[in-house]
Specification:
292 residues
């Protein structure tokens, strides 16, 4: 319920902020005088900006299961699966969240958590992760994923994505309208200058928005690492898990769930768009938490 209220409040706040900023800058009066309905555009932008992100969030568990081929552990088969379920249950209790759905999927080392609601999440680990890590290291990874769930990171990232999407939709159309009137001298309706400018601006603003969302995503990874250390009572296991992961070729998740995985291998300029910080930086942050 709290997250639904937060979602609605964010939608309203974004629309209000857009209108206020344009009014303060005097742009709103100019655009209104030229025939552009600012209020209508703000509402349209909020709906378009948030709709895709919100629908993706609601379908995230189903989509994740379908794209990764994950198998839900309903009745544990063997000691390893029983250990995974018991470990997730214990960590979920410590984190103060309901028992998530637990799944395993075939693939190189990776893990992820997703779901629209804090108390009905999905936590999945790959067979490659289970085969290449010790129980202590897997426990740390599970603690990391449960921290994402406890922190409400899936909802938070959806709100951030929806907010920047709204600004991209809104600003690209405002710029397109101004260029169409001032440069192409269109006097009635919308000319080709408007549509061409909107397309270019949405690409440019979209790239900038992706950098912003990726930065927020990297910050939540540091928090989830720290959360795992708190749940386990020591950062040692998470440090060991990250070091192990750094020496492995971890598996790529489907694009829609890349930000929900345990690591991201982007380097150089592309690191600006990475959903995860470098493993070395994550280890350093955990090292700094160690008691003296």
């Amino acid at each position: 319920m709290k997250r639904i209220v937060l979602f609605l409040a964010t939608n309203i706040a974004v629309g209000v902020v857009l209108s206020i900023v344009l009014s303060v800058l005097g742009v709103g009066r100019y655009l209104a005088g030229s025939g552009l309905n600012i209020g209508g555009l703000a509402v349209f932008s909020v709906i378009v900006g948030f709709a895709g992100s919100f629908i993706s969030l609601l379908l995230s568990k189903t989509t994740a299961m379908w794209t990764t081929g994950a198998r839900v552990i309903e009745t544990p088969q063997g000691a390893d699966e029983r250990w995974i379920v018991d470990t997730v249950r214990r960590l979920a209790e410590k984190a103060g969240v309901a028992m998530p759905t637990v799944a395993i999927y075939e693939g190189a080392p990776n893990a992820f958590a997703t779901g629209a609601f804090r108390d009905s999440a999905l936590v999945a680990v790959s067979t490659g992760l289970l085969q290449s890590m010790t129980h202590d290291e897997v426990e740390a990874v599970l603690g990391h994923e449960l921290s994402h769930v406890a922190n409400g990171d899936m909802v938070t990232l959806t709100l951030i994505q929806g907010t920047v999407n709204t600004f991209v939709v809104f600003l690209s159309r405002v710029v397109g309208y101004v260029v169409d009137r001032a440069v192409f001298r269109t006097e009635r309706g919308l000319g080709m200058g408007y549509y061409a400018t909107v397309i270019v601006c949405q690409i440019l603003f979209g790239v900038a928005a992706s950098i912003i969302v990726a930065w927020f995503s990297r910050q939540r990874e540091f928090r989830a690492d720290a959360g795992s250390a708190t749940l386990l009572g020591t950062p040692r296991q998470m440090i060991d898990a990250l070091r192990r992961l750094g020496g492995l070729e971890h598996g790529a998740l489907p694009q829609a769930f890349q930000a929900h995985g345990i690591a991201d291998a982007s380097e150089g300029f592309m690191a600006l768009f990475a959903s995860h910080p470098p493993i070395e930086a994550r280890i350093q942050a955990l090292e700094n938490r160690r008691p003296s």
